[in-house]
Write the structure tokens for this entry.
Amino acid sequence: MPPKIKIMIVDDHPLVREWLANLINEEADLEVCGQAGNAREALGLVGSLWPQIAVVDISLEGGSGLELIKDIQAQHPQVKTLVLSMHDETLYAERAMRAGAAGYIMKREATSKVLDALRTVASGGLFYSPAVNAALAQKIVQGTEAQPTPVETLSDRELEVFQLLGRGHSPRQVSEQMRVSFKTVHAYCARIREKLNLANINELIFHAVRWHESQQPR
């Protein structure tokens, strides 16, 4: 029997990690070799456990999943990454692909699709939904793309700040969470306000909270 595919789970919700670990460990060809609840812990475990696949959520305590994917690709390029997130793929899938992820699947999908995604990525393939593939194909073939929404114009780091503000973090807490200076967060907020045409920090926080609420599963 060939060796099992080693998978590491990175998610800041213990119940999600437990559910996913149980799902994976029931399969004859897959096994969970480690779990992490934040980006820093995950990056350290990748270097010691050498998983073949890291399953990463977009929202993590102590750092963005997108930034973690970039770090994994830079430091351990042989490790493939698969995003498993509640966040809408229309906003995050292309960002994840640019970061180096081999696939993106939403948590609301059937468990069989999660397993399909893991095996596809393990075999060297990419796993993105037909909608994402069609949108990317249109950009390549026609050289055109739909006009981005204001939020889609944010950089990955700006989007991380926006997301944290929407989750109720103050700018000071955002700086601690992202491990950057308060001055840096202030600069990010200024750029976000400019891109979203918002007058002040209060409008930014209100807009971020409303956006965050709109992203939650119904």
The chain is about 55% helix and 15% strand.
